[in-house]
Amino acid sequence: MTQLAALKRPIVAALSPGLSSEQVESELGCSVPEDVAIWFGWCNGVAYFAGQTQDDANLIPGYAPLSLSEAVVLRESYPDDPVLGPDWIPLLGNASGDFYAALWRGSEQPQVAGVLSGEPTEIEFQNIELMISVFSECYFRGAFGVDERGMLTMDPELYEVVHSEVVGQYM
Question: What is the spatial distance between Cα 112 and Cα 122, in angstroms, rounded to a whole number?
């Protein structure tokens, strides 16, 4: 959040207060991994305001944090996906229907999959903490930034370098 505040991103003031672990489990109707409860405890989506653009709500270029209720609706409307399995919930999403989702089986630590409309689902991060580390490093190293129009932008080549290096540190 420090990097977003330094870039004067509107999302910093628009994050909705998080939920308790009990509220998350009640909404999902099942026990959830601690990391999923922590994510929705940190923020429950974005508070929308008049004049807000999608870019204003984005945490990373193209993706905004979803509220738990938005995530549940998205999950219910998404067709069966063999990579996601039965236990998953979207964390970040965009207006095109693409999203990052935490997925888990039983008590194992959730992985994070990238789900792009019309593309195969892929595991992108071995856990939520790693996703956050990659995104933070992307801001720190300039793979994510703000362009001359004040909009979030991404350098895809630098993103791939950062992703490879940070993920490589965890292996």
Answer: 9
- Residues in CB range of 149: below 8 A, 6 or more apart: none
Inter-residue contact 31 to 25 (CB < 8 Å): yes
Identity (one letter) of the amino acid at 6? A
Q: How confident is the model at residue 31 (pLDDT cuts 50, 70, 90)?
A: confident
Average pLDDT over residues 16-37: 92
Q: Alpha carbon of 153 to those of 35, 73, 79, 91: distances in Å?
A: 27, 28, 30, 20
- Domains of the chain by start residue, with CATH: 2-169 (3.40.1580.10)
**What's the pTM?**
0.94
- Total length of the chain: 171
- pLDDT value at residue 143: 98
